[in-house]
Structure formats: structure tokens, C-alpha cells
Specification:
Helix content is 37%, strand content 14%. The chain is globular. The longest helix has 21 residues. The chain is of the alpha/beta class and 420 residues long. Bound molecules: pyridoxal-5'-phosphate (PLP). Pyridoxal-5'-phosphate (PLP) binds next to helix 5 and helix 6.
Length: 420
């Protein structure tokens, strides 16, 4: 592979010092002053705004390309000696602000924002894997990630092994070709947890690249980088942006890994649009407030559902009945905004509830200010065999709920009438 400059890129096993000008510009979240998470969400990456006539709002650099004052400066850029922005696929000031905010929130050196969560996931994985490598992943995953591994990675010569969220049997799967351990915690849609510290230690012991999808937890509730993960990925479409108005993703980690991700983003083209970065920056500022309210609401809704006579089972890690309750208490700072439930009446009863809600919206996605219900078999987990669904823990009648910031009494009243 060659860079745009025509210089040969080093192979994956070698150092990544050949970063493009964009990758050299990745700013360190770790170097931001040590401040609280909410302060970082508001102020990280914003630059000095003190003075007269300085705009308080986060600016948007709505441009595809950037000028140079001379060919001499262009030459410096081509030689990797200039930090100038050249073209938004390589970098843009509005994207850089989001990257600094998210790196600071995750306690990481750097971040790379992408056009979607899937762009972040595929760029992180392809940045770490090559033909002939093997990947171990939890079987309980967002369906898109699972299908990427199932339908694309095989053709690329990358073998995928799946384990349960308890990682049982993982020792037997590791061999000299194993390169990556990929986990999601909590999982979509079953809200099961992986012992994230244990998984990171396992990866370290076997010299694997550890990657975790932190979308459901958000950095407010869990910061895997601090536990030793190499990379964290997010669908920033969800809680980070938080308002159901943008598709976005981000990968987070140290500079070495982020340079690799950035290369993949530049060449595969999964770069974020500045308008999306603007919305993401705006959303991130209220992340902490939203997540705390969502956790409160989700607990109230979970407790209500657990007592309802038509509900067979509620999956919410904040309920003592959840198999990962103790783990959730130990490794998360809150139980999150996501829950799922099975109805005694199976799929027909689940469809009836979803068709009858009036305040909840029947829509895919999650993490926004609006509460949503969805049937995973028709959305995130479509195109999966019965065996794959069982392995993922998804029953045909499972309803997944994303809790928003509305008043919990209204959410409960809506579910009450829909279940009647
Ligand atoms: C946990 C998780 N990861 C990744 C994704 C993919 O994100 P995007 O839709 O932004 O590409 C999703 C989407 O639902 C998700 O739920």
C-alpha cells in the first residue's frame, strides 16, 4: 500500500511512523489538563475562547479543501513536514475538536472520528488484521459487526472464532495466528457483560490487540483504555451524539493505533463530514447529563417491567436478577440506558407491544434523547439463522428498549397501556 504521497507504507507489523500529515496532527487527549469528564466534554478541543468577540459556540469548518499560500508549503506537506490541513478526508478542524473531546473522555492519547460506527469498527479491525490472521470475538455483538466478521472477513482470509460473554473456552482458541480479541460490553441487544478487565489481561498475556465496542456503556460509565485496551470503538450515532440526527463513529486509543486507523479511514474513505462533527461536538457537551438521566429512567422502567405479569424476563444489568449484576456493579459507574425484555406471549405479544406504544417510537438505533422500542430480529439481528440468534442470546420475541430523557412516569404509563 502506498500513501497519497507515493511513499511506501510500512507493513502492519512494522512501526507506523509513516503517518500522513493528518495522522501526525492527532492531538493527545492525555495532554489536556486533568479535568472532570463533564468539563472535558464541554471544553476539550475548543481552544482559547477568552477575549473580545470570540464565538462561544463550536465552529464548523464546512469545507472539503484548504488553501496553501505557496507551492513551497505544499511541498512541505507532501514531505510530511507540515501540519497544515489539506483536504477534509485527511483532517478538518471540526473533526479534530470531536477527536480531542472523545479522547479526553475515554482517557486516551488520541481518537479518530469516522463516518459511522461501522467505519470505526472496520477501520480498527482492518488496521490490526491481515490475511491469515485469526480473530476471537464475543458471539454477542451488534448484528452489523457480527455480519461484517461472518460475511466479509472470511473472504479476506481472516478467520473468526466466537466465544460467549464469559469467554469460556478462549484458552483453547488462541494460537500463533491469533491477532485480535474483540468484545462488546454491554452487548447489543441482550445487555450481557464481559469482564472487561479480565478480557484485557487475557489479550495482554497472549500479545493480542484488544478492541472493545463501548457504545452501550459510553465513557461516562466505563473507560476501557484505563484497563489496558488498545482500542475502543463507538457508534457515535448513539449516546455520544445523542439526538438521533447524525450517523457517526469513533475509534480511540494510543497514537500508534490511531495512526493505523487513520490510514484505513483515509484509504477506505470512511471519514466524517464536518456537519456530522459539528452535531457530534454539540451532543457530546451534554453526554454526562443525558446518560445520568437515562440510567435513572432505565432503572425505573426495568423495575416496572420486571413486575409486569405479561413479561417473562427483563435484561437490565441494574436488576439483581440479571446474571451480570455483580459484574456491572463492579465495572460500571451506572447501568446504562439499554434494556431488553421477553414477553410470555412470544413474538406476537412483542409485536403487539411495539405496535401499540404511543410515546416510545418504533425505530432502530439507540442512545438518543427519545425512547425507542425495536424487535432485534427485524433490525440489528436480521439475516441470522436460528442457531446464530440463540448463540447471540436473542429470542424471536425479544423487545429492545432504548431509554431517553423523558419523564420516567410517562414512559412507564406508555408501556403499561401498550402491555394491557
Ligand atoms: C453496539 C453498536 N456498535 C456499532 C454499531 C454500528 O454503528 P453505526 O450504525 O453508527 O455504523 C451499532 C449500531 O446500532 C451498535 O449498536
Amino acid at each position: 500500500m502506498r500513501t497519497q504521497n507515493g511513499r511506501a507504507m510500512k507493513t502492519k507489523s512494522s512501526s507506523t511512523k509513516t503517518g500522513s500529515p493528518r495522522t501526525r496532527k492527532l492531538r493527545a487527549g492525555k495532554n489536556s489538563p486533568v479535568r472532570g469528564a463533564q468539563t472535558n466534554a464541554v471544553h476539550a478541543g475548543e481552544g482559547n475562547k477568552h477575549g473580545i468577540g470570540v464565538g462561544v459556540g463550536t465552529p464548523i469548518a464546512r469545507t472539503s479543501t484548504f488553501t496553501f499560500s505557496s507551492t513551497a508549503e505544499m511541498k512541505l506537506w507532501a514531505e510530511g513536514k507540515s501540519k497544515a490541513y489539506i483536504y477534509t478526508r485527511y483532517g478538518n478542524p471540526t473533526l479534530a475538536i470531536a477527536e480531542q473531546k472523545i479522547a479526553a473522555l475515554e482517557g486516551a492519547e488520541a481518537a479518530v472520528v469516522t463516518a459511522s460506527g461501522m467505519a470505526a469498527i472496520s477501520s480498527a479491525l482492518l488496521g490490526a488484521l491481515k490475511c491469515g490472521d485469526e480473530l476471537i470475538s464475543t458471539a454477542q455483538l451488534y448484528g452489523g459487526t457480527y455480519r461484517l466478521m461472518r460475511d466479509v472477513f472470511g473472504d479476506l482470509g481472516i478467520k473468526v472464532h466466537h466465544v460467549g460473554t464469559d469467554l469460556a473456552g478462549i484458552d483453547e482458541l488462541v494460537n500463533s495466528r491469533t491477532r485480535v480479541l474483540y468484545v462488546e460490553s454491554p452487548t447489543n441487544p441482550t445487555v450481557r457483560l464481559v469482564d472487561v478487565a479480565k478480557a484485557a489481561q487475557f489479550a495482554k498475556k497472549h500479545n493480542l490487540v484488544s478492541i472493545i465496542d463501548n457504545t452501550f456503556a459510553t465513557p461516562v460509565l466505563q473507560q476501557p483504555i484505563k484497563l489496558g485496551y488498545d482500542m475502543v470503538v463507538h457508534s457515535a450515532t448513539k449516546a455520544l451524539a445523542g439526538h438521533s440526527d447524525v450517523i457517526a463513529g469513533v475509534a480511540v486509543g494510543d497514537k500508534k493505533w490511531m495512526e493505523r486507523v487513520q490510514h484505513m479511514v483515509i484509504y477506505l474513505g470512511g471519514s466524517m463530514d464536518p456537519e456530522a462533527a459539528y452535531l457530534l461536538n454539540r451532543g457530546i457537551k451534554t453526554l454526562g447529563l443525558r446518560v445520568r438521566k437515562q440510567c435513572e429512567n432505565a432503572m425505573a422502567v426495568a423495575k416496572f417491567l420486571e413486575k409486569h405479569p405479561k413479561v417473562a424476563r427483563v435484561f437490565y444489568p441494574g436488576l439483581p436478577s440479571h446474571p451480570d449484576y455483580k459484574l456491572a456493579k463492579r465495572q460500571m459507574r451506572g447501568f446504562g440506558s439499554m434494556l431488553a425484555f421477553d414477553l410470555k406471549g412470544g413474538l406476537p405479544a412483542a409485536r403487539r407491544v411495539c405496535d401499540r406504544v404511543q410515546l416510545f417510537l418504533l425505530a432502530a438505533s439507540l442512545g438518543g434523547v427519545e425512547s425507542l422500542v425495536v424487535l432485534p430480529i427485524y433490525t440489528s439481528h436480521y439475516n441470522m439463522t436460528a442457531e446464530e440468534l440463540t448463540r447471540a442470546g436473542v429470542s424471536p420475541g425479544m423487545v429492545r428498549v432504548s431509554i431517553g430523557i423523558e419523564d420516567s412516569e410517562d414512559l412507564i404509563a406508555d408501556l403499561q397501556q401498550a402491555l394491557a
